[in-house]
Amino acid sequence: MANFWEVKTLAQMSTDEWESLCDGCGLCCLVKIEDEDSGRVYNTSVSCKQLDIESCRCRDYENRLNDVPMCTKLTLENIAQLHWLPESCAYKRIYENKTLPSWHPLISKDNNAVHQAGVSAKWFAVSEEYVHPEQLVDFVIE
After folding, report:
1. How far apart are CA 22 and CA 98, in angstroms?
2. 1 pLDDT above the threshold of 90
3. Which of 43, 45, 49, 98 has its CA 20 to 30 A from that of 70?
4. Sign of the Cα pseudo-torsion (46, 52, 54, 56, in order)
């Protein structure tokens, strides 16, 4: 039997299926800065204060949109515009008709595989609690 992510589009997925696509990398929780001239958005190595860097999960997922004004909820309507999502992101990959990587928890059955593969913020992120907003430009990553 085929896996749901191989036969369903993002629009066809249930809420639970949609949520299970998150691999727990925490990369979407990195603070972004936008170049006012070009409009280009850059990721930094600074994480949202709500990100538990050790687990790469939101400390208050249910209330994140109220508590963190810059938090962006991934939706069918905005996924195409979120160019800053990493190439490894399951939502982006499925949207682009690509397969999930072998380390993805839905395939590997291991929630730590994303960290072991080195594809998470766990190894480099620093919480925004410790960085002055004027210093963000010093933390831009390519």
Report:
1. 15
2. no
3. 98
4. negative
**Of 131, 109, 111, 99, which Cα lies nearest the Cα of 23?**
111
**C-alpha pair distances (Å), 12 with each of 17, 86, 89, 102:** 9, 23, 18, 23
State the amino acid at position 26 in one-letter form: G
Per-residue H/E/C for 64-117: HHHHCCCCCCCCCCCHHHCCCCCCCCHHHHHHCCCCCCCCCHHHHCCCCHHHHC
Q: Which two tokens stand for residue 91?
A: 């939502």
How far apart, in whole angstroms, are the C-alpha atoms of residue 49 and residue 141? 18
Amino acid in the structure at residue 68: V
Q: What is the DSSP letter of 48?
A: P
- Evaluate if pTM is beyond 0.70: yes
In the chain, the N- to C-terminal Cα span, in Å, equals 39
13, 114 Cβ separation under 8 angstroms: no
How confident is the model over 94-104, as pLDDT tens digits? 999 999 999 99
Q: Please say if the pLDDT value at position 54 is more than 90.
A: yes
Tally: H helices and E strands in the chain: 6, 6
